[in-house]
Amino acid sequence: MIFFAGLCAALIPLLALLHMRKPRYLTRRVSAARFFDEVTAAENIQTQWRWTNPLKSPPFVMQALCLLLISAALVSEDKVWYTVDEPGDLHLWVWIDTSSSMATQVDGTIMLDLARAALRENRDALAQQQRRPILHLTAFDLEQRDLGHNLSPAQFETAVAALKPRPLGTDLSLPMRSRERDEGRLQGADPLVLVISDLPAPTWVRTDPNARLVWHDVGDAVANHGFSEVRAVANPFLGGQPLIEIAVHRFGAPTEVRLDLKARNDAFHDNLPIRFQADRGTYLFTPPKPGVYELTLVPEDAYGADNQVVIAVQDDAEFVVDWRHPDRTWLDQLGWQNQTDHAAFTVLAPHQSADADRQRPRLIIGPGFQPGETRIDWFREGSPLLDQVNLDVAETLRALPAPDLPPLFPVLADSNGVPWVGRHDAPTTVYLAGFPTGVGDQARLTTLLWFNAVQTLLSKGNANPLFTRTRIDAATVETNLPPFRLDLHPGEGRTWLPPQSHGRERLTATDTPTTIQRSVLWWPWLLGAALVFFALERVLAVIGGPAWR
After folding, report:
1. CATH of the domain at 165
2. Beta-bridge mates of residue 285
3. Between 20 and 30 A from 433 (CA), which of 173, 219, 300, 461?
4. Is 349 within the bounds of a domain?
5. In sequence order, what are the residues at sequence separation of 6 or more whose Cβ sits closer than 8 angstroms to the Cβ of residue 323?
6. Does 234 lie in the same domain as 158?
C-alpha cells in the first residue's frame, strides 16, 4: 500500500506540468481578401510551456487534493480514527420440538403454536437489550434437522411457520450431543442455545450452571389417556391360543375410559370397561380368529395419537416347547407339546443350561421352595417378572439355593442372596426358584411368577409383531397393511406434567455484555473525501468550460 501511495504522490508534479502547458499564439497580418478564400488548416498545433504558479489554478488544487487524499487512505488502512460502543450481536441457536406430543390441544391451540408464541416472546426479551440476534434454526424429535444458519428474520419466520408435528418420539439429548460436537460451534461463535419443547427441562440441563442453554417448556398439565403397549403372547394355559394384552395409561384427573374393539369389517366388542390400578390398566382378550383388529379408547382427549391402535393377529403355528427339565409334571398338566423344532422356548434345570440352544429363549427352573419364613432383601421395581406380585406372601416361603446357576441379573432375592427370580438377555433367559407350589396365597404367588416368566419369554420370541412404530425414515402413520405403522411412542402421552423451564433469565441477564467496541478507521473517510473533491471538480469543469482552467 505504501508503494501505491507514493505513486499517487508522484503524480502531483506531473499534474502541475500539465496545468502549466499553454498554447502558442502567432501574430500575423492578413489581408481582408483572404477571408474570401479558403484558409489552409495549420499542419501542426504547437504548444509552449510557461512556468506559472499552479496553486493559482483551482482545478489543479482540487485534483492534487484528490491524489493526496487517496495516498493518505492507502497508507492508513489500519489506522483507527475513533472507537464507538454498539449493541453486541448474539448467535441464537433455536431448537424447536416437532415430536408427536406437540400436536396436543391446549384450549384449542396445539403445543407447536404455543412454541411459536414463546419464540416471539424470547426474541422480544433479547430486543430489550438492543442485541441483534444472528439466527440459526434446528427442528428435532428423534433426529436433528438443521433448517439454516445465519438466517435473515424473514427466512427464519418462514421456516418456523412451515414446521409441523411429526408422529415420532422425542430424543431430549440431541441438543446436548450437538453442542459437544465440534460442528456445534458456528463459525467460531459460542451460540446461546434456546430449546422450546412441551417437556420439562431434563436433568442434564439443570445440573450444568455454566451451559449457555435456555430451556423453555411451553407444556401445560393436560389430562390424557392412551395405549402404552399392545402385545401378543401365546397363552400357555389355553392350549396355545393367542392372547392379546392391552396396556392403557391414564394421566390427570380420573376418567372413565372404555375400549372399542372391532374386527375390521366385522363388529366384535364395544364399550369394554378398562379397570385401573393407580394410573395403569390392562385388558386381555383372545381373538376368535386371525385378522385385523381396530382398538379405540373413548372418550377423545387432548392428545389423540395414542387413542387408536390397529393390530394384525397372525395365524401362528401351534404352541410347542422344548422341555428338558427332569420334572415333567407341569408339562403334562398344561398339555403343552414337547418338540425340539420350532419350540417357543426351552425349559431346563440349572445344571442343563450349558447344553441348551444358545439362540432360543430359556426358562431355568430351580430346586423349588420349602415352607418357612424368609425376608426379601432386594427386588427390581417395575420388572414385568414381578407384575402384580405380593412380596408379603413371598416372605412366607423359602427358596432353595441352586448350585449350578449360570450368571444372571437378580430380579428378586432374599436376605441370604438366594435368587427367587433372575434374568439374562443373551439369549433371553428367565430363572425361577421352582414350579408353582403350595396352596392359597402361596399357590397364587408362585403361579403368577410362572405366568409372568412364560409371558416374558413368549413376548421376546414373537416373530410377527402386531404393529411397528413410525420411524425416522418413514415418519407417517400407515394403517392399511400389516405390520401397521403407528404413532405410539413411549413418553409422548405424558401430558400431565407441570411446566419446568430453565435458564430463561439468560435472555435478559445484566451481567452479559450488551455492547461491543467498534473501531472506525481513517481510510474510508479519506477515500470518501477524495471522491467528493473529484466529483466537485468535474461539475465545476462542466459549468465553467474553458474558463475553468
Report:
1. 3.40.50.410
2. 244
3. 461
4. yes
5. 331, 336, 338, 346, 347
6. no
Q: Can you read off the three cell numbers belonging to residue 254?
A: 380420573
Is pLDDT of 346 > 50?
yes
**What pLDDT, on the 0 to 100 scale, is given for residue 226?**
95
Nearest alpha carbon to residue 114 among 414, 499, 378? 499
| Residue 546, CB-side half-sphere exposure with 13 Å CA sphere | 2
CB 73 within 8 A of CB 527: yes
Indicate if 231 and 211 belong to the same structural domain. Answer: no
Sign of CA dihedral 76, 79, 82, 88: positive
**Cα distance between residue 153 and residue 159, in whole Å:** 10
Number of residues assigned to the chain:
549
CA nearest neighbour of 472 among 144, 82, 33: 144
> What is the widest separation between alpha-carbon atoms in the chain?
157
Residues 248 and 263 in one domain: yes
Q: How far apart (Å, rounded) are the C-alpha atoms in residues 14 and 6?
A: 13
Domain count, the chain: 4
pLDDT band at residue 17 using 50, 70 and 90 as cut-offs: low
Residue 402 CB: number of other CB atoms within 10 A? Answer: 22
The amino acid sitting at 538 is R
Task: Characterize the bridge pairing of strands 192-197 and 144-151.
Answer: unpaired
Residue 348 burial by Cβ neighbours in a 10 Å radius (0-12, 13-18, 19+): buried
What CATH number corresponds to the domain at position 295?
Answer: 2.60.40.10
| Residue 95 belongs to a domain | yes
Which 8-state DSSP code applies to residue 164? -
- Pairwise CA distance, residues 110 & 106, whole Å: 6
Q: Which domain holds residue 328?
A: 320-459
Query: Following DSSP, what letter does each residue of 485-519 receive, concatenated?
Result: EE---TTTT--------B-GGGGS-TTS--EEEEE
Task: With beta carbons less than 8 A apart as the criterion, state whether 477 and 487 touch.
Answer: yes
Residues forming a β-bridge with 391: none
CA distance 46 to 29: 19
Q: Does residue 23 form part of some domain?
A: yes
User: Whole-angstrom Cα distance, residue 430 to residue 509?
Assistant: 55
Reported pTM: 0.59
Asked if 264 and 200 sit in the same domain, the reply is no
Task: Convert the pLDDT of each residue in 98-156 to its tens digit.
Answer: 999 999 999 889 999 999 999 988 887 777 766 677 899 999 999 999 999 889 889 99
Are residues 232 and 295 both part of a single domain?
Answer: yes
**Residues 6+ positions from 257 with CB-CB distance below 8 Å:** 225, 248, 250, 274, 276, 281, 297, 298
Residue 236 lies in a domain: yes
Q: Answer yes or no: are the C-beta atoms of 91 and 179 closer than 8 Å.
A: no
- The helix-helix angle for 153-161 and 111-127 (nearest 10°) equals 160
Specify whether the backbone of 454 is left (phi greater than 0), alpha (psi in -120 to 50) or beta: alpha
Domain check: are 510 and 527 in the same one? no
CB contact at 8 A, 294 and 310: yes
Return the C-alpha cell found at 451.
Answer: 405366568
Which grid coordinates are listed for 253? 384427573
> In this structure, are 75 and 168 located in the same domain?
no
